[in-house]
Amino acid sequence: MTKHELEKTPVRIFEVWCKGCGVCVNFCPKDVLALSHHGKAYVANPQRCIQCGLCERLCPDFAVTVSPKPKAEKAKAEKAEKGSDDGEPKPKPKPKKTADTAEKPAADKPDKGEPAGKEKAGKESSGG
User: Fold this and answer.
1) pLDDT for 75 beyond 80
2) What are the E-state strand segments in 38-92?
3) Is the pTM of this model over 0.85?
4) Is the residue at 54 inside a domain?
5) Domain containing 31: what range?
6) Is residue 71 part of a domain?
7) CATH code, 48
8) How far apart are CA 22 and CA 118, in angstroms?
9) Contact by Cβ (8 Å): 32, 49
10) I need a labelling partner for 69 at 20 to 30 A (CA). Which of 41, 56, 96, 125 fits?
11) Gap between the terminal Cα atoms of the chain
12) Alpha-carbon distance 63 to 56, whole Å?
């Protein structure tokens, strides 16, 4: 890998810190990393990197760093996740009224000012 290519890659391996355990290589979802003939991790396919950060988080020796995505790429990725072309989240559809959620007739509702569950004095019968 040339010096120019090395500057463009978002993944950096500190070879001195790397003990060659292969955790970063095995967990990389895009096969960006590989083990060299010296048994140390190196960036084999920088163009495949999606900057997920798994290698950095899982490295027990802290030998891997991943630079964050530029803001433009983050916005593009977030837009793709939302599935919206204008960057605005799609509105949620309103739930349809069913028999359970439909409003009850006005006769069943208590009058304003009366506590719920109490009937009007005129409707009660004393029985005699």
Assistant:
1) no
2) 41-43, 64-66
3) no
4) yes
5) 3-65
6) no
7) 3.30.70.20
8) 72
9) yes
10) 41
11) 102
12) 8
